[in-house]
Amino acid sequence: xxxxxxxxxxxxxxxxxxxxxxxxxxxxxxxxxxxxxxxxxxxxxxxxxxxxxxxxxxxxxxxxxxxxxxxxxxxxxxxxxxxxxxxxxxxxxxxxxxxxxxxxxxxxxxxxxxxxxxxxxxxxxxxxxxxxxxxxxxxxxxxxxxxxxxxxxxxxxxxxxxxxxxx
Length: 167
Fold this sequence. Notes:
Blueprint: H1 2-6, H2 8-27, H3 30-46, H4 57-76, H5 108-116, H6 119-129, H7 135-142, H8 146-166
Helix pairs in contact: 2-3, 2-4, 3-4, 6-8, 7-8
């Protein structure tokens, strides 16, 4: 573990672009993505001794980026437009032409549903769609089996689709 403390500059260089790109796709704002990326690495540096090597360093950092992003959403009183879940989730987000940040505050059932999603489920959803994490990486991060990660992803995605179509 001590090596991670000594090599944090290397960790930063190797993972900065992945974390920044992930946050930029989510926020659709260069300023917000830069600010959240900085916060992600500051918190990661503070908590580096908690890294357990059950997943890649990149996925561990993206988990912290998810936390930063969720906090950003709460402070901005916005939610992510999950309508991209209507399309094929296996297509990487970079290829999803229909993905757009609406910047609109959600209302009704979708808002209630999103605020009720357990943190683990929203983490799996965000990392799978926007971080291109596979189920094995998600399993290592969350301490569940890859099959359970797939089930959580699929059920959460399907529930969001139901809410979107029935709202």
